[in-house]
Design goal:
The structure holds 2 protein chains of 2 kinds. Chain A is about 25% helix and about 35% strand. Chain A has 13 helices and 23 strands. Chain A is globular and about 65 Å long. In chain A, about 55% of the residues are buried. Chain B is globular, with a radius of gyration of 18 Å. Classes of the chains: A alpha/beta, B alpha/beta. At the A-B interface, helix 10 and helix 11 of A face helix 2, strand 7 and helix 3 of B.
Chain lengths: ~475, ~250
């Protein structure tokens, strides 16, 4: 965060509209709209998948068709017409990318606009990046270097082809197909995503990062991410998301599964900036995502999310603390402005002894938006000495927005310690006045105050992304005090 | 420096200032004293630019500019500083980050380039020593968890960092023990030059034992009813505000 200067912020503020709203002119191979067995077979055949995976998809489709879309979240939206979506769209390519040079120049230009120059990234920051455009993964950097350590970091499709045993063993092991409506939908139609395996005792030497981009219109994005940290290993993983500005609502229904085996640690950070819709609530992404991790003995999973985008967000990155002494953490900043709606939080399921979880949630609502924290802390009967600390703060920026907190606690073991703190505050006129009296403009003052409010969460992000997140927060809240 | 002419102001329709006139020149220290409810803090708020107050008549000239035409931040950038009676806490924002932002906004306003990190940190060391502020406080969140005395010292530290032309100290002595009072006063005295001016707003005389004012004014019922040299403060202390009230009533 130290590298970040006020000048950079000022530069960002000049361009305060959603700056990732462009569309790249890339030929795509898009299949007909609609969802049925033939479509699922078509996706599977396009991806040249093995029989077991096709069966997995077909089973998911039949389960999904018996399920109902959930309605318990504190969000209102027009239900998507699942038959009006194209479930597969891929940038056309004549051959598989063997090297960076094979990548379409327009695609490279897109990445540059998004601020992810692969070459720069490779040289300067040492972050390995996987880039997923619409339904397929187009480029993964640093493969060789990671390969030397036995780390597998590739697209989900590659993993299906090259590491079928790992995929077969772990896919759906944390989030079963029938888990929920969107998870089942994803299992039927998922097209790509990222896969990562860290071998025993290996500490991944760099951040692994996936950049998700929805480009084509009339499509949805359904990706799967699977991260497996074998015994005693460590990995820090980051995902970023953007989409073009469109009047239609596009659906993003992802599934992310994390597996932390004994003594392993996974740090998973998200900066979600899907297109949020315009000032009047037109368009924007429906972000219905299922994320969950499982911790074996002494393992640790830490989720950090900065959510500024999407018209509607429905997501609860969770931890199953199965092994004794395992640790789960959830750090979240969710910003809603204009007509955005977010219902987000976490579930901490304590099964093992001496398991520990921490929840820090910071909601910021502005405009006419609705922002809800929904969390579950569940202590099972064998989870002796389980501990949880939850802190849920809400900051209101206007008089027309809403902040809601729905904390659920279920405790079946009397040795557990559960603490919950919650605050709601309105951004102080006094704080703003104080800043302005020192010569600081209102916009910068809001930036300072909001970033200060979120500091505990932002501090959890890797440096480069903390800076990006800080800027995003300020831009998302431009002119929103009232 | 600043000339206030026949200032009338009200809040929610209630008149608070009723024709206040005051002239402060560079190099001068003015003390404004008065009983509770006389309009002392209202004056400070209006000078800083709080929007709740309605100016119904009068004018304020600040170094040749119409102060009432300037926004809160423009006034600050032009060199007007208010040491708050109740300094505000800003959780998660470090004092240094806050001040660095402020200094660079002011510099930008003057067309100067941003201060380097090295120069800035040297300034922090230098100025925090002036008010005997622990350097740890400089890196802590703005006023968060500070004691009353630390908050007031932090205000003077900020004043030293920003080097204003006109500083208004609003009840800076309230809630200070004698040691803190001495430190704060010492800081203010050291910052005094022929180029700047200070307005001290206070209820009690005791701060004026440490900061010697050139002029003392008594504010009562929205007007300055009596002005004099430093001896006026002592007289006021001795006779109490009833003396002024009775005089005004007659």
């Amino acid at each position: 965060m130290a590298n970040y200067t006020e000048d950079e912020l000022a530069e960002e503020l000049k361009n305060q509209e959603y700056k990732f709203g462009f569309v790249s002119d890339i030929d795509t191979d898009t299949i007909p709209i609609g969802l049925n067995e033939d479509i699922v077979r078509l996706i599977s055949s396009k991806k040249e998948e093995p029989e077991w995976l096709l069966d997995y998809r077909l089973n998911a489709l039949s389960l999904w068709s018996t399920m109902k879309e959930p309605s318990w979240a504190h969000v209102k939206y027009k239900k998507p017409d699942f038959q009006a979506i194209a479930y597969y769209s891929a940038p056309k390519q004549t051959k598989k990318y063997e090297s960076w040079d094979d990548v379409d120049p327009e695609m490279k230009a897109t990445m540059t606009k998004l601020g992810i120059s692969m070459l720069e990234q490779q040289r300067l920051t040492g972050v390995a990046v996987d880039f997923v455009m619409d339904s397929v993964s187009v480029a993964t950097s640093f493969k060789e270097k990671l390969g030397e350590l036995g780390i597998i970091f590739c697209s989900f499709s590659d993993a299906v082809q090259n590491h079928p045993d790992l995929v077969k063993k772990y896919m759906g092991s944390v989030i079963p197909t029938q888990d929920n409506y969107y998870a089942a939908l994803n299992a039927a139609v998922f097209t790509d995503g990222s896969f990562c395996y860290i071998p025993k005792g290996v500490r991944c030497p760099m951040e692994l990062s996936t950049y998700f981009r929805i480009n084509a219109g009339g499509t949805g994005q359904f990706e799967r991410t699977l991260v497996i940290a074998d015994e005693g290993s460590y990995v820090s993983y980051l995902e970023g998301c953007t989409a073009p500005q469109r009047d239609e609502n596009q659906l993003h229904a992802a599934v992310v599964e994390l597996i932390a085996l004994d003594n392993a640690e996974i740090k998973y950070s998200t900066v979600q900036n899907w297109y949020p819709g315009d000032k009047n609530g037109l368009g924007g992404i429906f972000n219905f995502v299922t994320k969950r991790g499982i911790c074996e003995k002494n393992a640790k999973i830490s989720w950090t999310q900065v959510e500024t985008g999407s018209a509607v967000t429905w997501k609860y990155p969770s931890c199953i603390l199965k092994g004794d002494n395992s640790v789960g953490e959830f750090y979240s900043v969710a910003v809603t402005n204009n007509y955005q709606q977010a219902d987000t939080g976490t579930k901490m399921i304590h099964l093992g002894k001496n398991t520990k979880s921490t929840i820090i949630s910071k909601g910021i609502s502005a405009g006419k938006s609705q922002n809800s924290y929904r969390g579950l802390v569940q202590i099972h009967k064998n989870a002796h000495n389980a501990r949880n600390f939850s802190q849920c703060d809400s900051l209101l920026m206007s008089s027309e927005c809403g902040a809601h907190t729905f904390p659920y606690i279920e405790c079946k073991n009397s040795s557990a310690k559960i603490e919950h703190e919650a605050t709601t505050s309105k951004i102080g006129e006094d704080q703003l006045f104080y800043c302005k009296q020192r010569g600081i403009s209102e916009e910068k003052a809001i930036g300072l105050i909001v970033n200060g409010y979120c500091k505990e969460v932002l501090n959890q992000l890797p440096m480069e992304f903390a800076v990006e997140a800080q800027k995003l927060l300020t831009i998302s809240l431009e002119g929103s005090v009232g | 420096m600043i000339t206030i002419k026949d200032l009338h102001a009200s809040i929610n329709g209630k008149a608070i200032l009723k024709g206040l006139t005051l002239n402060v020149n560079a190099g001068e220290v003015h003390a404004i004293m008065g009983p509770n409810g006389a309009g002392k803090s209202t004056l400070a708020s209006i000078l800083a630019g709080r929007e709740e107050y309605e100016i119904t008549a009068g004018e304020i000239d600040f170094n040749g500019e119409d102060l009432l035409d300037l926004s809160v931040e423009e006034r600050a950038r032009e060199g007007l500083f208010l040491a708050f009676q109740y300094p505000v806490e800003i959780p998660g924002v470090s004092n240094v980050n806050f001040l660095r932002t402020a200094i660079n906004e002011i510099r930008d306003h003057k067309g100067e380039k941003a201060m380097s990190a090295k120069e800035f940190m040297a300034l922090v060391r230098d100025k925090s020593a002036l008010v005997e502020l622990d350097s740890k406080l400089a890196s802590r969140s703005v006023n968060e968890g500070f004691s009353g005395g630390e908050k007031k010292r932090n205000e003077i530290f900020q004043m030293a960092m920003l080097n204003p032309k006109l500083a208004i100290l609003d009840e800076t002595d309230s809630g200070l023990d004698i040691d803190a009072l001495r430190i704060v006063a010492n800081g203010v005295n050291q910052l005094k030059t022929n180029e700047n001016a200070t307005i001290i707003i206070t209820h009690y005389q005791r701060l004026l034992d440490y900061i010697i004012p050139d002029f003392v004014h008594v504010l009562y019922d929205g007007k300055i009813v009596k002005s004099g040299r430093k001896e006026l403060a002592l007289e006021l202390e001795e006779k109490g505000y009833d003396w002024i009230k009775n005089n005004a009533a007659n």
